[in-house]
TrEMBL record:
Protein name: inorganic diphosphatase
GO biological process per UniProt: phosphate-containing compound metabolic process
Keywords: Hydrolase, Magnesium, Metal-binding
GO cellular component: cytosol; nucleoplasm
Transmembrane parts of this sequence: none
Alphabetized GO MF terms: inorganic diphosphate phosphatase activity; magnesium ion binding
Annotated catalysed reactions: diphosphate + H2O = 2 phosphate + H(+)
Length: 180
């Protein structure tokens, strides 16, 4: 696994990259959560600066959930092996797709855990380029746009160094434990 926290990437560059992704995927109608036509989540009217995220895993969880593309339900993928827990809410950005054919991953910094399957508004502040099992698996780092403790952050460089170290260590431990 290769892990790099790209601190030279400005959030404005990230927004341009994210906007290009949304524009490129504009032929997609929506990300459907299940067979019920009422469960359709879009990137949101404020995208790319503020966008919707679907939370798969709540802050503090040892359980890795993921969206089952067939049923549209949140399923248990695995329980993390060690005492590692998700440092913040984790999910994906609807109407995006990455090289691994999954939606774009996002770690959302906020005060409280959110239930899996919920969606919220977020703003990207940075990017963690990652390689997992030889495949590119980048992670967007975002803040909850409606959380008064985190919404003022505009760039990953503003996040306290210890919190960034926690996030980096989480991904190192999580990916490593999955490969065992």
């Amino acid at each position: 696994m290769t892990f790099v926290l790209n601190e030279s990437l400005r959030s404005s560059t990230l927004v341009v990259m994210f906007f290009w992704t949304l524009k490129y995927l504009s032929y997609c109608n929506s990300m459907s959560l299940g067979n019920n036509a009422g469960y359709v989540i879009y990137a949101g009217p404020g995208a790319p600066s503020v966008f919707n995220c679907v939370v798969e895993i709540g802050k503090g969880s040892k359980v890795k959930y993921e969206l089952d593309k067939t049923s549209g339900l949140i399923k248990v993928d695995r329980v993390l092996y060690s005492s590692v827990v998700y440092p913040h809410n984790y999910g994906f950005i609807p109407r995006t797709i990455c090289e691994d054919s999954d939606p774009m991953d996002v770690l959302i910094l906020m005060q409280e855990p959110v239930l899996p399957g919920s969606f919220l508004r977020a703003r990207a502040i940075g990017l963690m380029p990652m390689i997992d099992q030889g495949e590119r698996d980048d992670k967007i780092i975002a803040v909850c746009a409606d959380d008064p403790e985190f919404r003022h952050y505009k760039d990953i460089k503003e996040i306290p160094p210890h919190r960034l170290a926690e996030i980096r260590r989480f991904f190192e431990d999580c990916i490593h434990s999955h490969l065992l």
